[in-house]
Amino acid sequence: MTVREILKMGDPRLLRVAQPVTGFDSDALHLLITDLLDTMVAANGAGLAAPQIGVDLQVVIFGSGEFNPRYPDAPVVPRTVLCNPVITPLGDEEQLGWEGCLSVPGLRGVVPRWQRIRYTGLDPYGDAVDRTVDGFHARVVQHECDHLIGKLYPMRVRDFAQFGYTEVLFPGLDASADD
Ligand code: NI
Fold it and tell me: Which residues hold their Cβ within 5 A of ligand 1, which is an ion?
């Protein structure tokens, strides 16, 4: 078990377009996923992408499957490991919602995301994942997959009147967590 350092905004490794995974069910891939999970859980994150720990591969994990103190009102998202994901928006409806990011600690912003999406990809064994989701689940997937194309959520903020420090925007919320 290894909790890895999470890169912060400003590190150029967060701006790369990640490489696709080509070898499945390998020791190296399973080790990467274990490190991602350990790191995400230690930080109470809702998701984590391989580039956030400096690994240039198209791998994301998200979901807790249980209560997350950083997102006390969020619906449960099943814990998922996704390699080489592809997102297809279903319809043209967008939804605004607050986001934070472990690579942008201490801040929150309102970000537009597709309300309903289909996402496909491969699990660590190379088996297909294919889901149609909406709302918070769709938001988390879009946020994590953005990390694979070098996008951090502040790059998606449209109204900077709705971007700021968590402790100022939401006094008293989740004071134990960093973001
Ligand atoms: Ni993030």
Answer: 101
**Pairing mode, strands 107-114 and 163-165:** antiparallel
Handedness of CA 88, 90, 95, 97 (dihedral sign): negative
Topology of the domain covering 12-169: Peptide Deformylase (3.90.45)
Cα–chain center distance at 51: 11
* Set 5, 66, 94, 144: catalytic member: 144
Q: Are 152 and 175 in contact (CB under 8 A)?
A: no
CB 143 within 8 A of CB 153: yes
Mean pLDDT over residues 72-84, rounded? Answer: 87
Instruction: Look at residue 64 in the predicted model and tell me its pLDDT.
Output: 75
Q: How far away, in angstroms, is 100 Cα from ligand 1 center? A: 7
Cβ distance 147 to 14 under 8 Å?
yes
Is 144 one of the annotated active-site residues of the chain?
Answer: yes
pTM, two decimals, is: 0.93
pLDDT tier for residue 176 given thresholds of 50, 70 and 90: very low
